[in-house]
Fold these 4 entries.
Entry 1:
Amino acid sequence: MDRTVKALAVLMCLLLSMAISPQAYAGSPQEITVTLEVIYEDGDKSVEEIVEHVEAMEDFWAKYHAWQLVNMSQEEVVFRLRAEEVSPLNVLSGYSKVSP
């Protein structure tokens, strides 16, 4: 990814984090529901929902830097990650990734 695009993405995330709640900058922890979607190579999708207690938005964004931001509101943030592997369910069923 181009440096300019990365810089704009980081700036946008910081600006959006200020829009979530000024409380996070005031030192009082904020509760945010985080939804993590993993899309596997075989098309399966896993979804995990966790509640984060955020004291510093910078730390929050650093924790999820590898994830793609999909949706965001004051109470919820949705991230997505594309995994280059077969889903765990298919692995348990005996399938494996075949490389060309």
Entry 2:
Amino acid sequence: MAFHIKNKETDALARKLAKAKGIGLTDAVHEALQHELDRERSKPKQADLAVQFCRELRQLGNPAKGQPADKAFFDDLSGNA
């Protein structure tokens, strides 16, 4: 399979990496792409971040000191008291 790098800067980076590691261009590009893919996959998912945020927020709260979420509470919030 052919893969042509048409961007001069990208070509130069690939060649610098290959030279620095003492490997061929194909291996250098492969390693760089694999490294970047592994890095992306290791990032936490948005849903996991949201769940963690909710857990941390819950730990900070104190439901015993909160107001009941009844009609009077919502009326007070909206100014309909």
Entry 3:
Amino acid sequence: MDHIVTVQDAVTAFADFMEPTNAELDAIEQEMPVVLADVELLDAHIITLDRTPTELDHRRIRRARHRALAARAALVNRTASASLPGGAA
């Protein structure tokens, strides 16, 4: 009988190098409000897939879309103000 051996050492040999850097983790943290707002919008759309949307569903989608757009605008404004040296002029 032949034994199957794992090659985990070969597979995970470079795992330390594949970890996200602190800069990448900071970027993910900054984008998290946008991701959460997009998930909320997606949830609002999923709710209406198997039925005719009611007025409440339309309002829920509208509010979620507004939150997603506001989160994106806030992210763009944060990154734009962070990249301008000496403040906006």
Entry 4:
Amino acid sequence: MSWWQGSATANEVTMLRRRVRLLEEQVAALAAFTGIDPHHLPREVDPVSREARQLVEEGKFIAAIKVHRQQHGLDLVTAKRDIDAVRAQVARH
């Protein structure tokens, strides 16, 4: 099964991380070359709202998935994956 189908191997994840790092370096180099202030470049936007994140922090995972689905029109699998990622972040901190 391919990474876009929900089951990435460790090698695929490593390869994607390297590719993202390279792309970030290329964008930074292009910004420097053109004289663009890197602070004016778009930043990553957290796909999970503050409301859904708060529900995760309160341990209300099903409610967080429901809110996230409603806010973004997501299917259950995608919403759960996003909320699980937030749960992992919360657990690390």
